[in-house]
Amino acid sequence: MLDLNHNQRNFMNTRTIFAVLSRRTARVIVAALVILSMLIFTVCLIQSCGKRMRTVGIDLQHGEDWPGLVETLATNGFRVIPIKHPLDTATLKKIGVLMIFAPTKPYAEAEVQAIVGFVKKGGGLLCAGQAWSWSYKEYGNQPIETYPLNVLGQQLNFVVTAENAGTPTFLDTEIMTGIERVERTDWWPSKVETTSTNGQTIVQDQNRSSIGERLTVGKGRIVVYGSSALLRDNPKVLLKTVSYLKDRSSTSGTLRESSPPRDTATAWDYKTVEFQTDQRQQMSEWQREGWLVLNVSGSITQKDGTITRKASLKRAKQ
Predict the structure, then answer these.
(1) Helix, strand, or coil (residue 171)
(2) What is the span of the domain harbouring residue 283?
(3) Which of 5, 23, 275, 312 would be a feasible disulfide site paired with 294, CB 3.0-4.6 Å?
(4) In DSSP terms, which residues pair with 154 in a beta bridge?
């Protein structure tokens, strides 16, 4: 009987030990599963965030695009979403960078707040457009502050001015690293300014007027150019700008002069002309004649009430 009781006690002790071990093993397994789940969730979150940051939206509700833009972005690893409806928070959550080119339609207050919130939470914003013609009589004589990009800029600390600039000449920041020169065809950019203490110039014309600026607002980054054609004619600048906006690291560059065009002449003819015709038409005529526009004045009211402007031009000597 004593042997039986002894065996029973040993059996009970063994069961207790196994029960304790089983509980400990279960706890270890549960902890391992929790850690594994957290790792899987983190990996999925990183992948989802990375996918979102490489997704760019083009605002076609207010602005425009150009032939080859989507293809250029897609072949370089970006997923492109054309946005053809009013902007809202739900739409912006799907993208990492919002691009707005040459907008002509006004933004509603709800759209402005959605864009501001998007940037402050870490989204990238690329704005490009010239505004000097916005306030010209022949284009509506509208106040420069009503230019769509400036409506955004009032809350995001930048201004696309009514003054036109010249040839992109001086390059700065890592956005321009590896860019020898910025090509320019038939476009005349606006001067760009920032009202932020962290603003930094990306590109200046020959007179050191800014054509491109970058700044941060909240957790997000903003790049503003005074013409969308700068990006159209220079796809490498476009790609480097978008990459900068989706990134989270930044280093400063060193201001340097853009390489001159290979066909730059050593001698130039200069002239100043006064004109009344449509400015775009006049500029096209000058271009056909080989003239480059250095500067265009604001409106000049003559004694007889007519409105004229003056333009400074140069052309390679024949």
Answers:
(1) strand
(2) 268-316
(3) 312
(4) none
Rounded to 10 deg, the angle between the 109-120 and 148-156 helix axes is 50
The domain boundary, picked from 14, 31, 52, lies at 52
Cα–Cα distance, 227 to 70 (Å, whole number): 18
Answer yes or no: do 209 and 72 share one domain. yes
Q: Scan for tokens 């004694």, then name that residue.
A: 303
- In the chain, helix, strand, coil percent, each to 5? 35, 25, 35
Confidence band, pLDDT 50/70/90 cuts, at residue 136: confident
Chain segment 160-208, per-residue pLDDT in tens: 998 889 899 999 888 999 999 999 987 889 999 998 889 999 999 998 9
Q: What span, in angstroms and rounded, lies between the C-alpha atoms of 210 and 204?
A: 4
158 lies in the same domain as 80 = yes
Does 262 fall in a domain?
no
Q: Is the distance from CB of 249 to CB of 289 less than 8 angstroms? A: no
Which string of DSSP letters, residue by residue, matches 260-277?
Answer: PPTT--S-EEEEEEEE-S
Q: How many domains does the chain have?
A: 3
